Amino acid sequence: MNPVIEVRHLIKHFPLAGNFWGRQRAVLRAVDDVSLAIRPGETLGLVGESGSGKSTVGNCILRLVEPDRGEIYCQGQAVHSLKGNDLRRIRRRMQMVFQDPQSSLDPRMTVQTIVGYPLKLQRLAASSTEVAERVEHILTEVGLGREHLDRYPHEFSGGQRQRIGIARALITEPAFIIFDEPTSALDVSVQAQILNLIKTLQHRHGYAYLFISHDLTVVRHISHRVAVMYLGIFVESAAKGDLFEQPAHPYTRALLASAPKPNPDIRQELAVIAGDPPSPVHLPSGCRFHPRCPEAMPICRQKAPKTKNIGGDRADKLHRVCCHLY
Ligand SMILES: Nc1ncnc2c1ncn2[C@@H]1O[C@H](COP(=O)(O)OP(=O)(O)OP(=O)(O)O)[C@@H](O)[C@H]1O
């Protein structure tokens, strides 16, 4: 199957503000050559410590942040070169669900208006009657009845608000959805319900998902493949089973070793590895993980490793790792 979304060599550097007296301006390398492909019905989980560049990858794919370089294809269409109305049109096929439903829903709008708004914005419905019908249908899909149509966001629980956020993303019938930490603001019991809803919707419609999270349990539950991000690059990516059973990169191994055993009732946050990540402005020489790596060799200080495939050739068997050990 062809990928729904494909990203090739994505780069996003943020120039730092300030006066550098003629010296070259320092840049923060938020995303530094990332490639990925996601097929219909597939979820790619994206994990990594805070600041590793996960959200920037998602924002660049949707062009909410302008990439510096790289190619982005949605169902074969070159998103990176679209402008104006063409860019607006492709956004109906690529949607995002945010972490905090409280702040991403306008408190002055009713559910009817919030969920129907993308249809109006993109002129995807012929009449207000059609908008109303489609809103009602999509609310049922996410487990909310028509009695909620005229209520405001503050009248809902956190889980219900996230259902509204999901309905708003689904109303344009997208092929690809980015979930950026969609359950981290929710209680653990509600979190499970939302994750199951996200999975059910994927089974029903074949959506491709990019699922960004700090939480290894959540990523393990929801993903088919997983990519591990460290300081702007993917250090490892593989099918979920391979990544969790046979982690190859020392960073992935450290993440898994430091996480408690799988327990759906416990959040498994990252950021428990010895030492802080170096600054993305002043990256270490060679491999960017070497100052924290228990297996660092002399070459790791000198030369950045290339990404190699240590798995099979089939798309679902690829196991890519960026490390001098391989
Ligand atoms: N608009 C911006 N201007 C300058 N720097 C930015 C901007 N957006 C993100 N960054 C920086 O880029 C780096 C990557 O940020 P990003 O939010 O993508 O990381 P993340 O892995 O999603 O982190 P978190 O899990 O905390 O959301 C960080 O160092 C961040 O401070």
Give me some keywords for this one.
326 residues; alpha/beta; Rossmann fold; eight-stranded mixed sheet; 31% helix; 21% strand; binds adenosine-5'-triphosphate; ATP binding; ATP-binding
Note the topology:
Layout: E1 5-15, E2 27-38, E3 43-47, H1 54-61, E4 69-74, E5 77-78, H2 84-90, E6 94-97, H3 101-104, H4 111-121, H5 128-141, H6 158-170, E7 176-180, H7 188-205, E8 208-212, H8 216-222, E9 225-230, E10 233-239, H9 240-245, H10 250-258, H11 298-302, E11 307-309, E12 319-322
Parallel strand pairs: 3-8, 3-9, 6-7, 7-8
Antiparallel strand pairs: 1-2, 1-4, 4-5, 9-10, 10-12, 11-12
Tell me what you see in this structure:
Belongs to the ABC transporter superfamily. GO terms for molecular function: ATP binding. By secondary structure, the chain is of the alpha/beta class. It has one domain: Rossmann fold, CATH 3.40.50.300. The protein has eleven helices and twelve strands. The strands form two sheets. An eight-stranded mixed sheet has the order 6-7-8-3-9-10-12-11, sandwiched between helices. A four-stranded antiparallel sheet has the order 2-1-4-5. Strand 4 and strand 5 form a beta hairpin. Helix 4 runs parallel beside helix 6. It is globular, with a radius of gyration of 21 Å. The two termini are 29 Å apart. The mean pLDDT is 91. The protein binds adenosine-5'-triphosphate. The site of adenosine-5'-triphosphate has 13 residues, from strand 2 and helix 1.
> Could you estimate the helical fraction of the residues in percent?
25-40%
CATH superfamily descriptor? P-loop containing nucleotide triphosphate hydrolases
Q: Within the CATH hierarchy, at the fold level, what is the topology?
A: Rossmann fold
In this entry the ligands are: adenosine-5'-triphosphate
Q: Would you list the SSEs in sequence order as H and E?
A: EEEHEEHEHHHHEHEHEEHHHEE
Taking the alpha carbons of the first and last residues, their distance comes to: 29 Å
Task: Please give the order of strands in the largest beta sheet.
Answer: 6-7-8-3-9-10-12-11
* Number of alpha- plus pi-helical segments: 11
Radius of gyration: 21 Å
What sort of overall outline do the alpha carbons produce when their principal axes are compared?
globular
**Top-tier CATH class:** Alpha Beta
Name of the CATH architecture: 3-Layer(aba) Sandwich
Family: Belongs to the ABC transporter superfamily.
Organism: Desulfofustis limnaeus
Keywords: ATP-binding, Nucleotide-binding, Transport
GO molecular function, one term: ATP binding
